[in-house]
């Protein structure tokens, strides 16, 4: 296992003496990378962004200004602490950089070495705190993602019990198995823009709209196929999914794009679930009412295949919990 890299400072200045002076003054605090132009600074950022904690750039350089480099870093590597170093005569550019959010602070030239070291020490501390905060935020995101997906798995059961008036395991197993095989990417809410209460509200409205759409499709299937055998639903699935679905023989169906079967579990909270996907859920509920299910398996050549089978199994809390752990 490789040891973690020591956070580095990148200093960009077209004056060779300034580069040497800076490196000599700061290399006891952290490794110092240097570049003599904005273009070279961008190259080093792209190559070493994972280890660069602080970017310091001179303002006036041939070909481009330092605030261009700082804006580049802000847009692509926002975790890096950005500092502009400039002479008093260029203060106007410094104010502009601050107002545009390109830098956290500036250091006036000529430098006072003691003050320069203090500024960079604080910048390295800030970068470390940002890294710790980002790590905690990622952990929180992973927990919330699991909570969201678990709530949606539970909602699948609620739809079976509430809409279809049954607690059969059949439609739940078919739906979740198809979604797992098709591939589920957990939703990633932007926790900087949405809090837990907003997310809960969005999920509730999303679930209600989906339940209503499923109910309407289930009524449609009941009216169209009253008294029909379960096999009739296969042609209706083919009709609903179009080119992404084809019937296989008398009791099979192949979904070419398995991700279509995971929409409810993986789409963002603010997205409306498609009518096509609501029909998929309604079809499984209709089959469950008739004691049938689709046994799902990976399709030949990709996608997901379903095969009609009989069954009448009640869902238990242990079974539902086992499904939650799979997503």
Automatic annotation (TrEMBL):
PANTHER family (UniProt xref): STRESS RESPONSE REGULATOR PROTEIN 1, TWO-COMPONENT RESPONSE REGULATOR-RELATED
Biological processes per GO annotation: phosphorelay signal transduction system
Name of the protein described by the UniProt record: Response regulator
Pfam families tied to this protein: Response_reg (PF00072)
PROSITE patterns: RESPONSE_REGULATORY
Keywords: Phosphoprotein
Domain Response regulatory, residue spans: 8-124
Modified residues annotated as 4-aspartylphosphate in this record: 58
InterPro entries registered for this protein in UniProt: Bact_response_regulator, CheY-like_superfamily, Sig_transdc_resp-reg_receiver
Species, as recorded: Pseudoduganella ginsengisoli
Lineage: Bacteria, Pseudomonadati, Pseudomonadota, Betaproteobacteria, Burkholderiales
Presence of keyword Phosphoprotein: yes
């Amino acid at each position: 296992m490789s040891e973690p890299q020591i956070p580095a400072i990148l200093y960009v200045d077209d004056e060779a003496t300034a580069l040497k002076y800076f490196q000599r003054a700061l290399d006891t605090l952290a490794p110092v990378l240097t570049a003599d132009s904005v273009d070279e600074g961008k190259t080093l950022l792209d190559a070493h962004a994972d280890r660069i904690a602080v970017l310091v750039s001179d303002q006036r350089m041939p070909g481009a200004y330092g605030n261009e480099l700082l804006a580049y870093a802000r847009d692509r590597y926002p975790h890096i602490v950005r500092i502009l170093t400039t002479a008093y005569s260029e203060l106007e550019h410094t104010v502009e950089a601050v107002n545009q959010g390109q830098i956290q602070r500036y250091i006036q030239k000529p430098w006072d070495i003691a003050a320069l070291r203090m500024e960079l020490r604080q910048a390295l501390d800030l970068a470390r705190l940002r890294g710790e905060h980002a790590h905690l935020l990622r952990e929180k995101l992973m927990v919330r993602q699991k909570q969201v997906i678990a709530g949606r798995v539970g909602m699948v059961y609620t739809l079976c019990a509430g809409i279809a008036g049954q607690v059969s395991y059949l439609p739940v197993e078919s739906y979740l198995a198809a979604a797992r095989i098709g591939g589920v990417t957990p939703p990633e809410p932007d926790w900087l823009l949405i809090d837990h209460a907003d997310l809960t509200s969005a999920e509730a409205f999303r679930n209600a709209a989906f339940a209503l759409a499923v109910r309407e499709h289930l009524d449609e299937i009941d009216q169209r196929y009253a008294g029909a055998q379960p096999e009739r639903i296969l042609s209706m699935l083919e009709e609903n999914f179009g080119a992404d679905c084809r019937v296989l023989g008398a009791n099979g169906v192949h979904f070419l794009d398995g991700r279509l079967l995971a929409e409810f579990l993986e789409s963002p909270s603010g997205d409306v679930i498609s009518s096509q996907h609501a029909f998929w859920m309604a079809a499984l509920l209709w089959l469950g009412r008739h004691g049938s299910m689709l046994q799902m398996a990976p399709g030949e050549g990709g996608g997901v295949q379903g095969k009609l089978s009989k069954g009448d199994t009640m869902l238990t809390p242990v079974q539902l919990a086992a499904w939650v752990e799979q997503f």
